[in-house]
Amino acid sequence: MPTFLIIGATKGGTTSLYNYLRQHPDVYMPDMVKEPRFFVVGDREFVRENGPEGWRPGGHVTTLAEYQALFHGATTQRARGEASPQYLYYPDVPGRIRAYIPDVEVIVILRDPVARAYSAFLHQTRDGVEPCTNFAAALQDESRRIQEGWSPLYHYRAQGFYYEQLSRYYRLFPPKKIHVYLYDDLRRDPLGLVQNMFGALGVDPTFRPATEVQHNVSGVPKSRRLHHMYMFLKGSNRSSVKSFGKRLLPRTLRATLRENAVQQLQKNLVKPSLDPDVREVLREGFRADILKLQELIGRDLSRWLGEA
After folding, report:
1. Over the stretch 255-276, which tens digit does the pLDDT of each residue have?
2. Are residues 22 and 141 in the same domain?
3. Which regions span the lipid bilayer (predicted)?
């Protein structure tokens, strides 16, 4: 079983953390499945991943045997983990995690909930699965989508109430086991943040992973052709295509190719500005939760409130 979990938040930098942490020689993270979502299964049998077009299983891994098999490749690594950012959002997940791995280290990275919500909208727009053409309309439609069982990826506003979500973990796990970071820290000093995580996980904190590239960046594609090519490669992540590639290409070369693809994607994306009126409405809606959250985690979040 894993010794640590990255539980979220979605669009908070978890993909970047996954790619940075797994570079450490004493850290093992599954290569084939980045987000197993094992502890989500049971909250919903299915979730709507791609809007109204179709349904798919709510978790990539649905049995304990399959989940444990993800870590069979670990040999001498002291730390074993996975990154499923949905774990922060679903209410029953903390209890399941405690039942299976009560001593687990919990890592969470939080992003300004307004920026996170808009980034999630741009993510879905980027992938061509957001029916609304503007963010305000998607927010108006959110309650209906939640009632109809759409994926949490579409819960733009609802996923931003971090105090409520994180409190569930503090009720079940010792505070020393919960390691809270901010997306602002990741942007400002990614190496320092990741090395701090290494120390929390009990591995050499002086190791220097490559942290130059951001992963899973949101935005609107300038070239749909280039983006479709990227999405094809991304879609092969859990398919026989990747398995075939693993047999033919050494891990270092695969990592280099993946980094090059990420950089090309970033060059192909533009980020439209968020409407100031929409920003203020969201910010006021999150204000009470943010004020309680900063007390819970002992961090100044006045910037999220537009006060700094």
Report:
1. 566 656 655 665 656 678 899 9
2. yes
3. none
